Amino acid sequence: MAALSTVCFFSLIVLGVSAYLISLTEQVGFYYTFMAFAVAIAALTLITFPPLLIISFIRKGALFNYIIVEVGVLGLFWVLWLATASYTANTLVLLPLDCNFIDPSFVTSCHELQAIHAFSWLNWLILTAYWPFLLVMALIQQNRGNPVWTKSVGEVDMFAPGVVVATQVYPPQQQQPVMYSPQPMQQHPQMGYPPNAPGTTYSPVPTQGGYTPTQPQVSYAPTPTHQPQQHAAGGYPQV
């Protein structure tokens, strides 16, 4: 914040001196363009930076105070003050460095021009030191896991260490042996027949071709034939 306050103070000096020189040159009917440019940039700086400082104190979390917004604004004014200092230096090349003029009024105006040139470069140098520092530190904190882009500069510790994610280490679990109760062996029924049980009669298995096997034939004893009675020799049968 001290850097921005210093830029505001130097901008106020540039604005006052440039406006005074413009008022002097307008008396003779002209003014230098670089003076008007310096007035515009100094006025724009005084419109932008003081609210940036005030809001950061009275309101936390405002969009205007986000670091990403501040980095963009500082980058823009870094370019504008570089242009102001270069434009003024291009004009002062035509003047002697010691402002050795016969007319004392020209000597005073020459020193005032040198003041505009000097404070313009000082503003640019301050922004050159502060803007890259803020950008680089914000990138470093973002890489360390600290979100800073949506916070103000006063809320962020630019030198904070990285966020360490604690990983909980669990002790190795010892696998308990699983105890199984002995299961009763299932008694499989014995193949065959129980004792004193009649056997099962199986029908004959049909043979190939669909014919049943030849049944054994029952043999019958021959019927005895009737033998004729023998008669006594030489005799005839009795009637």
From TrEMBL:
- The portions of this protein that span the membrane are 29-55, 62-83, 121-140
Q: Which domain of life is it from?
A: Eukaryota
Q: Tell me the compartments it is located in.
A: Membrane
- Annotated MARVEL domain residues: 9-128
Mind telling me which GO cellular component terms the entry cites?
Answer: membrane
Membrane topology listed for this record: Multi-pass membrane protein
Major localization class: membrane
The reply on keyword Glycoprotein is no
Q: Where is the composition biased (Low complexity)?
A: 177-187
* Spans annotated as Disordered: 177-239
Quote the biased-composition stretches of kind Polar residues, using this chain's numbering. Answer: 198-230
- Which keywords does UniProt give here? Membrane, Signal, Transmembrane, Transmembrane helix
Signal peptide coordinates: 1-19
Keyword Oxidoreductase belongs to the record: no
InterPro entries given in the database record? Marvel
Protein name per the record: MARVEL domain-containing protein
Q: Which organism is it from?
A: Amanita muscaria (strain Koide BX008)
